[in-house]
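Entry for fe (ii) ion complex. Fields follow.
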Amino acid sequence: MTFHLPNLDYRKDALSPIMSEETLDLHHGKHHQTYINKLNDFIKDTDMLNMPLEDIIVKSSKETTMSGIFNNASQHWNHNLFWKCMKPNGGGKIPPKLEGLIKNKFGNVEKFRQEFINAGITQFGSGWCWLSINNGELEISKTPNAESPVMNNIKPILGCDVWEHSYYLDYKNKRPEYLEKFFDKLINWEFVESNI
Ligand code: FE2
């Protein structure tokens, strides 16, 4: 099968001014589309054509000769999650089930917020910060470039893109401000909880 760009669940101007229409146009319409085009091109004559995306990611992550497939497959998965993790007028109150897990692990929501934002700030260069469930416990992590916990068979429930293409038009070099706004104004907590 070939992979396709998913539609956004909101209009491209609906996250403004936290994330501008121009950023979404480029990020969703150009960057994500390019990952998909390259992935489809890489796998068209291989046995990966009929494999689920997660299996392609795990398999290609183990072979340095497959780095082109891995990078584009993983970025396709990462962006699919990222678009779903945001909504207009997002942020705010975390639903009770997820809030309970957060308090169990981090003590309170503010400590969790700081740790998640700090993971994104301290990711050197391009990459991602994540909230995952590993062995029944919440876990915050960060990864460089296209990598994600999926390559280790762990599925994140929340991800934030800290590549410059995700924030530079709106925040210039202020990655911490982008991460704070993402957390406070964009996260679709109902979606994040639905991934548990
Ligand atoms: Fe991105």
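NOTE: The mean pLDDT is 97.
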